[in-house]
Every structure is written in C-alpha cells, then in structure tokens.
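Journal club prep — side note

Before the paper discussion, L.F. wants everyone to see what a predicted structure for a comparable chain looks like in token form. Sequence:
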Amino acid sequence: MSIKICSEESCEKIVFCRGLCVMHYQRLLKKINAGKEAQKERCSVSSCDRPVYAKGMCNKHWQRVRKTGSYLDADLKNDSQLSVKERLEKNGVAKENGCIEWSKHKDTDGYGIISVGNTPSRVHRVSYEIYIGPIPPGMLVCHKCDNPSCFNPKHLFLGSSKDNLQDMVKKGRKPKGEKVHNSKLTEEQVREIKIRVSKGEKVGQIAKDYPVHGRAIRLIMAGINWKHVKI
C-alpha cells in the first residue's frame, strides 16, 4: 500500500483527509466555517458583530434581555459604577406631561435625592448643573411644573427666594394653616374656636383650651389668620 502525501505544495506530511494532512485539513475547515459565519445575519445591537441567535440579537445580548429587560451595558451596572449623568438617565421616569421624575430616594418634600461625591444633593439642582450650567450663589432652582420630583431641565429655571415665594403665591402653593411647619393648631381646632367665638365665649377662656395665646385667638376672630377655615 502506497503512502499518500499531502497535496499542499512543499508539504511532505501524510494525508489525513481530502488529500490533506491534519494541519492543512484543519486550516481548510476554518476557512469553510469562516465563510459560513460571514453569511450569517449579524446582531442588531450597535458595535456588536456576533451572529444572530434570536430576535435579531446574538446569544449574549439576547440572554441579557431575557434576564434584565435590557441589553445595554449601563443597565447591568450598579449605580455606584455609573457617572452622575448616567444615574440621572437610568433612574428617570418620563411622564406624559413632560416631567422626568426621580424613581429612587426622595426627601419629605418630594424632592429626589442623589449622592454626588458622597454628599446628598437634590436631583433637580444636580440636573440643572449638568444640563444647563452652574448655579450662582444664593439662587434657587425652581420648577415650572410644580413637581418636586421632576428633574427635566426644560422644566427648571433659576430664581431668588423672593421669586420662588412669589411664584408659589401666584400658583396658590404657599403653605397655609396646619400645613405650615410650626403651626400649633389644626383646622378642626380653628373651626371649634370660631364656633365658640360666635357663641360669645371670652378669648381668655378659649385660649386656655388650646396651645396658643389670646392674641392668636383675636387674629382668628379678626379674620387675619386662618381665614380659609369656614364654619
């Protein structure tokens, strides 16, 4: 039986398959497979050149979508691994009215809180600085939409404390009555006081039953304070 030699020029190794030695046969297989891969549809994710596995995506990105709902690298990171801007974009929820609301921690007033350099900051102020520019000393970042948790830069504007107060009054948002943080009376108590006054009870006697002085009762009687409470 004669020994067959590899058909590749200058190769003297014994034939393994298809007239080629093991080395040249494996090279041929790689070329064939490469040609097949080149004909396959590519992943639809930008910058990914892997062949499609399902839903127009390669196996890697398809598995990400199945497990996390997103194929983006940023969505697979913890917030601590993201920049402040990336965290804003990741944790904002767009609403039909145009607001972009913060979906994470908020303070008691409804403002979103984000940590910047280990310092807690209000999200709408951080958003203004990132997308619009620096906040001058003493200036406030106000909301056109009156939504504390919104940080859409299109809804934000700069104003002084006076501007902010005037805007609150104009829009009817100024706290009054029991919503004022240092209020000592509730609306129900004020209503009781007004009823007792209407019946002719003396101011001194009424004041003994509530945590306020007689002057506060007189201001209620005069309609200066708590005038929004009706009996």
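L.F.'s comment for the group: The first strand starts at residue 92 and ends at 94. Keep this in mind when we get to the figures.
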